[in-house]
Amino acid sequence: MKVYIETMGCQMNKSDTERMLGMLSHFGYEETKTQENADLLIVNTCSIRQLSEDKAFSQLGVWGKWKKNKNIKIGITGCVAQQKARQVFSRAPYVDFVLGTHKIYSLPDVIKRIEKGERVCECEETNLATANEKGYPINRVKSTNAWINITEGCNNFCTYCIVPYTRGRERSRLPEVIIKEVKDALADGFKEITLLGQNVDSYGKDFKDKTYRLADLLKEVNALEGNFRIRFVTSYPTDITDELIETARDLDKVCEYFHIPMQSGSSRVLKAMNRRYDRETYAKIVEKVRKMIPDVTITSDFIAGFPGETEEEFVETLTAIDEFELDYSNVAAYSPREKTVAAKWVDKFIPEDVKDERFQRLNLKVQENCLKSNLKYVGREMEVLIENFYEHKGKMINTGKTRNFKTVHIPCDEDLTGQFVNVKISGAKTWYLKGVLRT
Ligand code: SAH
Ligand code: SF4
Ligand code: F3S
Question: φ and ψ at 208, to 5 degrees?
Fold first, then answer.
């Protein structure tokens, strides 16, 4: 039997897909990259914006048509599944199962049931993180970097965000379970470990029987043998403690990189978003990280056109990117999400054309700063972990990342994937650096 999984959304979903493929392979399903020859088709969905949700249903629609002449099973997992549960069946009646984010470990059981012709919806919330994991293998995507989730869910309830509704309350996975996964990934040849969570810096707050936080986990991972790098994303600004910054600075394998979403440059908007900091507090955090960690790359996320955002407040976002020298930012136009607080502020919604225009200006600002940030490294020598090797305009190039998360393109005929190389930075473009191998 062959399974095809279409993965949408964030790294959390990509990580869940690797777990689902692991479970399915254990039960005799082989992964196929071709939808047309799959017996089981799964869309692992994201619901962060309306567009992501619509994409999920249009994918299901395509497969639904195939079902008329083909003996296939169709499933939906991920954030839209968790949020819509049984409602999926009325919108997409050809779906065989709906499996929420809390229940991915029920997948083998769900498959057995649909094979018998049952239609299944498993979407109950759980408060467990690792307790319901059953030690199935994980089919990680072949690459240099292994993503290892350390927390599930989120307690912050930012007024625009659906994640607390689709991923539930924050649960930290047990250190010993994480360490085992890290060891397995290193034994499989991964050269970089990224610890993953909606707010990695609140890791361990929910442990009742021990004081064990992200800094402790970083120390334990860092002590493992081997030449590899450690990253962690995403950091909630006010959960970044001095201890965490010091630990990141002092541990040799932990890279000089923080992803600290700010969301808006305006203190008034931040309050309306229910973010627990203002512009000044964010500024202080970034300043501290920069002072303590030389060459650190700090990236962020911003939303354009949050309900009630004035032109002046939007401009504060643009000036924040400049003032805090944010090296790169993900940007999005605000999209109202079911159940969230801000979605009810219809009278304050920003017209689509204004939102779009702000989104474009935000993009231009991000590009401008990204180039500015890259130019700082021209002439420097940096260590690059090679991730890819391919032909570009008739020349072979290796591409990879520096410790501080800059992408570098290096012309070289030899495939160096998986190797750490020293490179002299010879030029800078908006999205990448150009480098020459040092011998
Ligand atoms: N936990 C992270 C963010 C996870 S969601 C944090 O707190 O920063 C990823 C990004 O999606 C967010 O940072 C935000 O910028 C964006 N986002 C979330 N909800 C959104 C919405 N309703 N409309 C537009 N963008 C949104
Ligand atoms: Fe969403 Fe806010 Fe939680 Fe991030 S911290 S996942 S933006 S609710
Ligand atoms: Fe991720 Fe989208 Fe869910 S961003 S947590 S897959 S809503």
Answer: -90, -25
